[in-house]
Each structure stands twice: as structure tokens, then as C-alpha cells.
Amino acid sequence: MHGWTGTIVRIDLTEKTFSVEHPSSDIYERFIGGRGMAGHYLMRDGTRAWDDPAMPLLLFTGPLVDTPTPTSGRMCVMSRSPLTGAICDTSVGGRLGTQLKRAGFDGVVIAGKSDAPCGIEIRDGAITFTDAAHLRGKTVSETRAAIGDAGSCAVIGSAAENGVLYASIMVDGHFCSGRGGLGLVMASKNLKYLAVSGTGKTPVADRDEIAAAREEINRLAAASPILLGELGIAHYGTGALYDLMDSRRMMPTDNFRATHFAAAASMNAHAYKTRYATKRTGCTGCAILCKKIGANKEIIPEFETMSHFSALIGNVDPDAVIEANRVCNEAGMDTITAAVTIACHLEITGRSLSPDALIELLNDIAHARGDGAALAMGSHRYAAAQGRPEVSISVKKMELPAYDPRGAYGMALAYAVSTRGACHLRAYPISHELLRKPVATDRFSWSGKARIIKIAEDANATIDSLTACKFLFFAASLEEYARAYCGATGARATAQDLLAAGERIYYTERIMNAANGFSADDDDLPPRFFAEPGTGGGGIAIAPLGRGEFLAARARYYRIRGLDGRGMPTEEKCRELGIEWNG
């Protein structure tokens, strides 16, 4: 094959065995790779409990990984979420996807449960199981140091070992497979780490065609102010969005009770760049290099972490944000869920936190002790236990990222219908509602948003299956990436062909969620957004969302997506997409 290796490895941790299989070319073309292939493999076991040994943890690369295509170093991690009960996938950077591909595998399906803590090491085609009992309780960096030169590493920390429902898998130190608790799935299998190294090369069908696509993509990126402009992501990381969100009165503040942060000017990306003398780094195969590291090797947070550990909880100390991010990375813990859960706790208790108290509380959550034991369950369960369920700002039990939905109606709809819970990346309407890419839309209008969200979900499912980076699509499109895909695989596919595969991939996720009991009742937003206004100013009014208008937009989305009035899959749509229907 070209682009793909044609080989998937299944690992059984119970028996400490593995086997390989070779999917047909039809399966690859229908599901592409990454998120699509992982979902295809998850379908059989997707209704099992997340901690059932038979529930797989899936790590899949895409056909562009280990090729010269821009941002081609990512991979997908997928399973069922301990936090939400829905399917959960994350797109993660670092070197792991590239190393897995060079080792000869498009994906790894890990099932079973080891009788003691263990590690998996893949070196080209050889797979070994190691004793990891001595690594229990060690931080992510301590574990990586103990592993040595075993290759690119996916590691869990104390949060997963202590049952935190939003525990992460950390790749190569600070690349986070962060949402939904996939680290806890890994811990339930007694798997402390996966290390991969490979020396092979991925064969491609037409290297000249990939080079031409690469030139087109890089030219478009160079002309994009949000990517490579002097105030863009390349220079400031995703934190470049901080001032924009605040000025548009969309910055979640005080647990989403306000949408403007008075201290924003001293907590923005420019403040971090000045204070920490940052430099660029990033994923394999990327020219944007959005990750930022300080002169003393401080890991500069992503936008959501930067925002939520400041405005959301009333913190005005950037050093505390840096340290909160470090604690979460070392423990292997999702920063978004941790911050929103703490904000929920502060609202219910009426407390405020000093920087030292914030760090202490995060450590307590990671070790499930004191107040941290209750907060380790996430805001939905914590607020319900306190008799204040409305204070949890979550969808499908997953906490909202740093974009207040009252300021962008497309984002409001995207949060509600997302297959993994409150997720900004399923459709990312911020691209057109605020960044004006590919065209500007009225952020305070529901008009057209149902169709836009559906198409964007399909496109992003495709992007996650190619395992490219969504940021490049502020500039490039599936047209350029279809050319790279054809050059890599030799397939004849247009952008519309890839988009059709994305629709199949997304609909498959809706089928799995429906089988797990999700319906229209779960495609909803917290009541706060329909009852309370945000913080107006600068000529901008942030009104509560209209409940009737939201429900009408959701109903339109269901029709366009091919779901019934309860948001459930239909036999007719499954037939159209060529998906096996089990009722």
C-alpha cells in the first residue's frame, strides 16, 4: 500500500500477546485513518463499560503521517469516556504518530487488563511487555526519565492511577490527549506507558504531488495573519486568541457568570511572551510551531488553560497559571475540566483561591484526597451531589472550553450537538464567527448555522482522520489536503469525496452514542446561558440565548444531519452512507 502501512496490531494485555491484521483497501478509503479508523474499530465494543477489559483503547495514525505534508505528525486516541459515557477521541501531537507509522503500524488496538502495572514497548515490528510496578505513583516526567530511550512515549500520571474521571494521556511530556478521561481507560488496563520507535519509511504513491500540495498549503499559511502574522499563533501560540475573546465579550469569567475579565491585559499572550521570553516548538511535521516554551523551560499553556486558570477562577497571577498547567501535565489531568470543576466549587462554596491554594487543590484532585476527591469526579457529579446541578457548566457531563456560547450562536449549537460533549473543536465555528475564515458570519444569528455546523463537523472528522492539524485550515482547505492525500495513497479522491467520508465517520459516532443512551435530551446547554446575560461593553450586548430559537436551530441540524426528531440515527441515512444498521 501507499500512505498507509496496511497493518493494524491488536494487543491483549491479559494474555500479553499481540496479533496483526490487514484491513481491506475499501475500509481504509471509507474511514481514511485516525479518528475514522479508530471509530470503525470501536463500533463492535463501543457499548461496553469504559473499564471493561474488553473495551479497547485505540491509537491510530493517518495516511499523511510520516510524509512531507504539513502538520502530518498527529494521531488519534479513542475509547469510551469515563467522564461522559459517550465515545471520546482526542487528536494529539508530538512524535508518537510518526514513530508508530515508522514502526510499521497504522494503528494499535489495546484490550484486556494486565494483572500488574506494565508497559508496552514497540520497536519496529517487535513488541515487548515490561514490568512497570516500580513506576506506579511517578509523575509523567519521572516515568519518561525511567523509560529512557525507548522512543516516543504515551504516559499516565497520578490522576489516572487515583481514579480522576478526566485523567489524561501525556505524549512526549506535554502533548496532551486531554479530554474525557482516556488516561483513566489506560489505567484501568494497568498500562502505565506505551513507548514506540521505528526506523521504517512510509511509501507514498507520488512524492511530486505531495510536494506540490505542500507548496500550496505553505503559501496559504504564509498569507494567513492568524497563523503566521506578527500577532498570530506562530508567535504567540493559541494564547493569541486571549485578547480577542475578551474584547468580543466572550471570555468565560467567574464560572461563566460574566464574559469580560478586567485583568485580561496583564494575563494575555503578550504578557507571557514578555515575562518568560518564550521560544517556538511544536509537533513533528509542522511549520507553525504553536507550542511555546519559556527561557527556563516553562511550558506556556494553551489558550483554554490560560483563560480558565485566570478569568474563570479569578486568578491574576501568571506564575500560578504556569504552575497549574505544570501540575496538571505532571499528574496527567485535563486542564479544562479541572478549571471548570474548581470554578463550580468556588461558586457553590463562595470561596476564593490564592495562587498557593489553587496549586494545593489541584494536587489534592490528582491524588483524590480532601476536597479533591469530590472534584476528581468532574463538575457535573460534584454539583449534583451538592444539590446545585445548574452550577455545572457542562454538556454531556463534559465541561465547556474558553468560549462563552452567548457570544457566538454557532458555537452554542456546536457545543450542544457535539458527539464527545462540550467541544469547541468538533466544528470550531470561531473560525467564521470571529476570525472571519473562510467567510464572516453574524455571530449573533442562528441563520444558516445548522448547515454550517454539520458541514464543519464532517470536515473536521476528515481532518482528524487524515490526522492533520485544524489550525492549518484557517488558511488551507480540504482541496489542498485532498491533493496531498492522493499523492500519498494513490487514491483518486476529491475534497468532496473526503467530506463524504467525514460524514460517514461522524454519523458512526452518533450511532455509538445512541446505543449508549444519548438522545436530544443530552444535546443541550446549561440553563445559565438561557437565563442570564453576559457582560456587555464596548458597544456589544451579550444577551441570554433564546430557548425557542436554539431548539429550532437544533431541529434544523437534526434534519440536515439525517437524524430523527429525537436526534437518533435513522435506517435510511445509514443505508445512504453505507453503514451497517443494527436498529
Give the low-pLDDT segments.
none
Largest sheet: spatial strand order: 2-1-6-3-4-5
| H/I helix tally | 25
CATH homolog superfamily of the domain at 8-197: Aldehyde ferredoxin oxidoreductase, N-terminal domain
Largest sheet: 6 strands, mixed
Radius of gyration: 22 Å
CATH A-level architecture of the domain at 8-197: 4-Layer Sandwich
Shape: globular
Percentage of β-strand residues: 5-15%
Number of strands: 17
List the helices and strands and how they pair.
Elements: E1 8-12, E2 17-21, H1 25-31, H2 34-42, E3 57-60, E4 75-80, E5 87-92, H3 96-102, E6 107-111, E7 118-123, E8 126-131, H4 140-147, E9 152-155, H5 158-161, E10 169-171, E11 175-177, H6 182-188, E12 191-197, H7 207-222, H8 225-228, H9 233-236, H10 242-247, H11 269-276, E13 279-281, E14 291-293, E15 299-300, H12 303-308, H13 318-331, H14 335-349, H15 355-366, H16 371-375, H17 379-385, E16 394-395, E17 398-399, H18 409-417, H19 430-433, H20 449-466, H21 478-489, H22 495-515, H23 528-531, H24 547-561, H25 571-577
Parallel strand pairs: 1-6, 7-12
Antiparallel strand pairs: 1-2, 3-4, 3-6, 4-5, 7-8, 9-10, 9-12, 10-11, 13-14, 14-15, 16-17
Structural description of this entry:
It is a single chain. With 583 residues, the chain is of the alpha+beta class. It has a domain at 8-197: 4-Layer Sandwich (Aldehyde Ferredoxin Oxidoreductase,  A, domain 1), CATH 3.60.9. It has a six-stranded mixed sheet with strand order 2-1-6-3-4-5. A six-stranded mixed sheet has the order 8-7-12-9-10-11, with helices on both faces. It has a three-stranded antiparallel sheet with strand order 13-14-15. β7 and β8 (126-131) form a beta hairpin. The longest helix has 21 residues, at 495-515. The chain is globular, with a radius of gyration of 22 Å. The mean pLDDT is 95.
